[in-house]
Amino acid sequence: MITAxxxxxxxxxxxxxxxxxxxIAFVPTMGNLHDGHLALVKAAHQHADKVVVSIFINPMQxxxxxxxxxxxxxxxxxxEKLISEKTDLLFLPSSKVIYPKGxxxxxxxxxxxxxxxYCGKSRPGHFRGVATVVCKLFNLxxxxxxxxxxxxxxxxxxxxxxxxxxxxxxxxxxxEIIRExxxxxxxxxxxxxxxxxKQQAPVLYKTLQWLAKQLKSGDNSHNHHRLCQQAxxxxxxxxxxxxxxxxxxxxxLAESTPEDKxxxxxxxxxxxxxxxxxxxxxxx
Length: 284
What we know:
The protein is about 35% helix and about 20% strand. The chain is of the alpha/beta class. The protein folds into two domains: about 1-175, Rossmann fold (3-Layer(aba) Sandwich), CATH 3.40.50.620; about 190-284, 2-Layer Sandwich (Pantoate--beta-alanine Ligase, Chain: A,domain 2). Helix 6 crosses helix 7 (about 155-165) and helix 9 (about 205-215) runs antiparallel to helix 10.
């Protein structure tokens, strides 16, 4: 596996592959890799000749109250996992490489409307940071395809919207959520959970499954707002603190209407220090 830390060496390798007519897939990450990330790498291999993975903890997507310094950094273990998955190139830039003028004084990319809902409402500026760094990484790697996990459903829709709106020549490949045996969606933030919280956390997914079952029951009289309130009560009684839970149109993420057939349930809840997110698609 090639490891590049500077833009010049990354671009030289990409140019070599391009001259050889090879197709390139890209997986952007913030490191602390788990099986969910490795599923993205596996998917990338299915769509391209060469796979590039980046590890960059993006300061632009962290809020003032979020401690970026405590975000886990496990570069050596990450490299070993990527080598085992036959990753072709790891791009491991410093913040200075990505934001030479400092991350507060840069051109930014913002996807309107959809970025201000749900996680965007809870974390103002978060998706501006995500869209900006992904746009820059796309410009650097110039991939044919890029793989993103479906756990971050809103993020996935924002990136797809950015690619469509800016006519970027990148195919976005969604990859299914990888879950622990308990049903808890795999996430780097699960490392913040205590043993007791690990027992509580799966209630988030179980509640989404309950909600999906209610929606599929065929009872058109269901009040979505009331169902979400019931789900909130279930989650909170289990020891978590619900941030939001919403039934939305699967593509626009607008609040669902009785006529919608393609739905997604989006949810976020705090379990101790960890902010968990999850979702489940429901097609009626």
